[in-house]
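[Automated response] Your request has been received and processed.

Submitted sequence:
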Amino acid sequence: MMEKRIAKDLLKIKAVFFRPEEPFTWASGIKSPVYCDNRLTLTAPEVRNDVENGLAELIRTKYPDCEVLMGTSTAGIAHAAITGHILGLPMGYVRSGAKDHGRQNQIEGRLEPGQKTVVVEDLISTGGSVLEVVNVLREAGAEVLGIVSIFTYNMKKGLDRLAAAGVENTSLTNFDVIAEVAAEEGYIRPDDVKRLIAFRNNPSDESWIGEARS
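Generated structure:
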């Protein structure tokens, strides 16, 4: 099962690292039991191979008509490039803002109006940053078929935003699967899974931090 295999890969290299007893603090101030850095997959060749072949398979299966891949800046660029190489597809990426010099591009790489495009992202949380990329591509005339990513939190806010924008994300693995595998493999206690899911359901509610284990 791809979701479990990728979950094991990410846990092994601590690209997704759970610490429910000592939460991390996000830039927004939210306390989180999980730390994600999927860039670490790039320096772990075996895991990188699983991830890029997994992304390629998602695109082959879900978006066989895809004509060009567009990575998010910066985390999705390498994954779009490697996956594009596997599939023999062109790729480019979307900057977080237009350059203030040269041609002032925000989209790097050739993109023709009407081209069928898949966005490659590393992780999806609330969906804000990836939807900015989708909007830039649509404004440039691309037909955005969908998004593929390595990992998603499956947060309600993110799911609602994607649905409202009429775009679908498919991830190699997700928060629930990784929490389950983390408990099975001894990274966390089995009774911590409930706390993790409580965080996922409402990240702004910190009551899970002090919640007694059953």
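Summary generated for your ticket: The first strand starts at residue 16 and ends at 18. The mean pLDDT is 92.
If you did not submit this request, please reply to this message.
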